[in-house]
Specification:
heterodimer; A: about 425 residues; alpha/beta; Aspartate Aminotransferase, domain 1; Aspartate Aminotransferase, domain 2; 2 domains; seven-stranded mixed β-sheet; globular; B: alpha+beta; Nonspecific Lipid-transfer Protein, Chain A
């Protein structure tokens, strides 16, 4: 099978590194792609479930722009709604009417939502959610899951990271996922001081197996939070609309006070949303929070069209089904070569790891070999499935997976 | 934690460690120590203890106490030791008065040469032989400083507490120099050489790239993306280790 090279990507990156910090920064940085040289850095075009890099290499995209692509690149219905709105106006003086329509639609489909606030990125609304919880409770502290990710504001970042001061983290308490006893202890030690508990609906860290909530976990957490007056914030930025159109809290059977959405709302058009209960609407209205482009109408029109389409086709069910089919095939191929490919998390956004080598190196090499053959796999982050990953894509992916396993088997023999 | 204590630990456990490579790679220094057979014990009140041994043309630097040192140098405080490293104070010899001449005349030749390599000027770095030794020393200092930063620096302790158990291998290709750092519940230990089964690897393409990288002249993300620095394995270990490395310039430049 032909293996790709990335001459143009490398050349452009050299230029980029002269004028852009890191060349490519943030979650698009090539640094966690191992080895970085096995990956394309720049995408020239995209359609459906495929991307083409600037060297002309075609990939079946299993990262979906790290989540925002959900109904296919260049989805006709979404793009037409966006184009129609663009003709009327995008960022203009005065709020766009489509904003009300979108808020009404989201409050209709999301049981916990009595209101919706729009912004641009996931971090905008996780930060706002915390401010709302503080405004509502008059409390300082934020309870979160150790290893959870809620954006890039200083309080959300890891200890010791650059630009993060000790004071930024002093009100953040981290507890282990699925550990009710530790949660109770943290609440007890900080009684009357915790404004909120912010968590993804299930634990999906990078570089680690994803974990669903243990039986009864969320019910116990909900019960403690209600008793202690702690606001429950569901960070559904990544999983939102990939498990359940009603919000992932419904999938796991608990009530959330605030839910943060972003990635899958508008199929790549920039918009995020905080949905909340009526009890918190007054507090939300008192927190001054805004941004220059938060009233842009085009992403709102795209979001409305995308959410309607996703609801109509039951997008989460399609993604889960197709994801499961893909993964079952891959696990079977891995097994035929003597490798154990462990899948965790939802099949619509799975995390994979070859367990034969605990250092990740074998897994990294295999993901790199797959990517060089046209199935874009990262080794550090969960993947994303869209509604347009077809059976043809899956078949091609299985061929690539097989070839990549053949390569590493030949290289390492029985070492793993 | 006290600034001077951390700096003293770095000086004694990371900087002085470079004498081993200095006497291995610098011909003049190799010749200088070829007939030395003695040991120097450093004792710092309320601070670190370490020693240097010269035996049959080989120099080895260790932590703690050595058996029957030829010379014992005492320091009243970590600050006192740091001042000696800055050239503004002298130690108090407790043992080895007959070797005062060695301490005054011979040993400084070695430490002066160490300073020469550790405080490079740009012109010196154009000399390939100098660059090679400077690079080895930079890497040694960084790797041997990690346990100290992780153990004593407030933020370093928090960063280290999140590092999973395993071994990180740092190396300069092709087989130029390698070190490994073990992280375990019993502590963090740096050793020279490759790791048998590392959890994570950071490999720098050649010594020139390594020098720029370790000197902070290139940003790590760009170096990794361009393939000049290759990483693999447990990347969070490398991320956390990099945060520890970034704290070293707070103490030594």
């Amino acid at each position: 099978m032909k293996s790709y090279d990335y001459k143009k990507s490398r050349s452009l990156f050299k230029k980029a590194a002269e004028v852009i910090p890191c060349g490519i920064y943030g979650h698009y940085s090539p640094s966690p792609l191992v080895p970085a040289t096995a990956y394309p850095f720049y995408t020239a075009k995209a359609k459906g479930s495929h991307i083409w890099d600037i060297d002309g290499n075609e990939f079946i995209d299993y990262m979906c722009a790290y989540g925002p692509m959900v109904t296919g690149y260049g989805n006709r219905k979404v793009d037409e709604a966006a184009a129609k709105q663009a003709k009327l106006g995008n960022c203009v003086t005065g709020a766009p009417p489509v904003m009300v329509e979108l808020a009404e639609y989201m409050t209709d489909i999301i049981p916990c939502a009595d209101w919706v606030f729009f912004a641009k990125n996931g971090g905008d609304v996780t930060n706002y959610a915390v401010m709302v919880s503080r405004a509502a409770t008059g409390r300082n502290k934020i309870l979160m899951i150790s290893g959870g990710y809620h954006g890039v504001s200083p309080w959300m970042q890891g200890d010791g990271h650059h630009g993060v001061m000790d004071d930024d983290k002093k009100n953040v308490i981290a507890v282990k996922w699925n550990d009710v006893a530790e949660f109770e202890k943290a609440v007890s030690e900080n009684r009357g001081e915790i404004a909120c508990f912010i968590s993804s609906p299930y634990h999906h860290p990078a570089f680690g197996d994803n974990e669903f909530p243990a039986e009864g976990y969320w019910n116990k957490i909900e019960s403690i939070c209600r008793k202690e007056g702690i606001v429950i914030i569901t960070d559904d930025i990544r999983a939102g609309f990939r498990l359940d159109m009603r919000g992932s809290n419904e999938y796991f059977g608990y009530k959330s006070d605030l839910i943060c959405f972003c990635k899958a709302i508008a199929n790549g058009y920039p918009i995020s949303a905080l949905a909340g209960s009526k009890e918190l609407m007054n507090a939300a209205s008192k927190v001054f929070y805004t941004g220059s482009y938060w009233f842009s109408a085009v992403p709102m029109a795209a979001a409305l069209a995308n959410l309607k389409e996703m609801k109509k086709i039951n997008a989460p069910a399609i993604m889960i089904k197709q994801g499961r089919k893909l993964l079952d095939g891959m696990v079977s191929i891995a097994s035929s070569y003597g490798y154990n490919l462990k899948v965790s998390g939802s099949p619509s956004m799975p995390y994979l790891r070859i367990t034969n080598d605990p250092s990740f190196m074998l897994h990294q090499e295999w993901c790199a070999e797959c990517t060089k053959r046209g199935a874009y796999f990262t080794s550090h982050h969960n993947w994303f499935i869209s509604t347009v990953h077809s059976d043809k894509d899956l078949k091609r992916t299985w061929d690539i997976v097989d070839d990549a396993f053949k390569v590493i088997r030949k290289k390492y023999g029985d070492e793993f | 934690m006290d600034f001077n204590l951390i700096k003293a630990n770095l000086n004694l456990y990371a900087v002085i460690k470079n004498l081993e490579d200095l006497t291995l790679h610098d011909k003049e220094m190799k010749e200088l120590i070829s007939k030395w057979n003695l040991s120097i014990q450093f004792i710092v009140r309320n601070g670190p203890k370490g020693y240097i041994e010269f035996t049959d043309g080989k120099c080895s630097v260790g932590r703690g106490k050595c058996k029957r040192p030829s010379i014992v140098l005492y320091f009243f405080s970590p600050l006192h030791l740091n001042k000696m490293f800055d050239g503004t104070a002298n130690p108090v010899p407790l043992k080895g008065f007959s070797k005062i001449r060695f301490l005054m005349k011979d040993f400084p030749k070695l430490t002066d040469r160490l300073a020469y390599y550790l405080k490079p000027e740009n012109d010196l770095l154009k000399n390939i032989d100098y660059l090679k030794i400077n690079t080895i020393m930079l890497m040694n200092t960084a790797a041997f400083a990690i346990p100290e930063i992780a153990k004593e620096n407030g933020r370093g302790k928090i960063i280290a507490s999140h590092i999973p158990e395993g071994i990180v291998e740092m190396k300069i290709l092709p087989d130029f120099h390698s070190l490994n750092i073990s992280f375990s519940s019993s502590g963090i230990v740096t050793q020279k050489g490759k790791a048998v089964r590392p959890s994570a690897v950071m490999a720098m393409k050649n010594f020139k790239i390594a020098n720029d990288f370790l000197n902070g002249k290139t940003d790590p993300f760009t170096a990794i993306a361009s393939g000049d620095v290759m990483i693999k394995g447990n990347i969070p270990m490398l991320d956390a280790m990099s945060l520890l490395l970034d704290r070293i310039p707070e103490y030594i430049s």
